Amino acid sequence: MEMLINVLVQIISGIIGGNIAGMTKQSLGTGLNTLLGGVGGLLLGQVVAALTGTSGGEPLDVAAIGGNIAGGGVGGLVLTWVVGFIKQKMTAK
Fold first, then answer.
1. What are the C-alpha distances in Å from 9 to residues 6, 41, 71, 78, 84?
2. Which tens digits make up the pLDDT trace of 51-88?
3. Whole-angstrom Cα distance, residue 65 to residue 76?
4. Alpha-carbon dihedral angle through residues 73, 77, 78, 81, given to the nearest 10 degrees
5. Which UniProt keywords are present, listed alphabetically (predicted)?
6. CB atoms closer than 10 angstroms to residue 25
7. d(CA 57, CA 37)
């Protein structure tokens, strides 16, 4: 059950990060910003949880929640921004 809570926090944080990245000129539209943000949040959130050792801990531990929010938000923001940047460079003439 704790793994599910951690994953949900990472995905939601990633979605928020992805939509924040979408506020720049690298926006991909609301749907893709949300999708890429969730994927990026899950990926980097899992990496951060594994590196900090909070992946198997209590789900409501402050350190675990903070790591999940930070890793998920940054992962969603970065993945969305990078894909938007690449798309912008490919379409620019």
1. 5, 9, 10, 17, 24
2. 887 766 666 678 888 888 999 999 999 999 999 999 99
3. 16
4. 180
5. Membrane, Transmembrane, Transmembrane helix
6. 8
7. 24
What range does the domain containing 55 cover? 2-91
- The alpha carbon of residue 84 and the mean position of all alpha carbons in its chain are separated, in whole angstroms, by 15
Position 16, amino acid: I
DSSP type of residue 53:
T
pLDDT by residue (tens digit) across 6-63? 899 999 999 999 999 999 888 899 999 999 999 999 999 999 888 887 766 666 678 8
Q: How far is CA 82 from CA 33, 36, 66, 68, in A?
A: 11, 10, 24, 21
C-alpha closest to that of 67 among 89, 44, 86: 44
58 three-state secondary structure? coil
